[in-house]
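Friendly challenge for the regulars: who can give me the structure tokens for this chain first? No prize, just bragging rights.
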Amino acid sequence: MSEFVSSLHEVFERFGRIEAKRMFGGHGIFHEGRMIGLVVAETLYLKTDAENVAHFDLLALPHFEYLRAGKMMQTSYRQAPADVFEDREEAASWGRLAWEAAMRSGHAPKAAKTTKAAKATKATRTAQAAKTTKAPRKAATR
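First reply, four minutes later:
Bragging rights claimed.
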């Protein structure tokens, strides 16, 4: 993980806990299981939608774009303002805007991977349920 990505934990300390995961040749930035940002080439982009985009438009912050099949694709992530890195309260405010957009997007957080212990517990419950379930009666033979 780059020093820049590692520093984001401090940048967003007043907003809340964030997690960085490698993806898309960069890092996804998550809060409470939802992707609120993207880091590509040491640049932070934050999630936008119709309700918060005016804040980004006001500062003329560019979209994250990528080339796909010879065509430039524009995403719902916009570059974070420089103030985010200077002022922890500003970072919290912008982080909240991005998180609210992620919440409105309707994409539920991914479920945690099932651990071996959880699988074992489920197997035990299934076995116990099988023991307590009555077997169907055999039809009387004539």
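The chain has five helices and six strands. The longest helix spans residues 88-104. Your move, everyone else.
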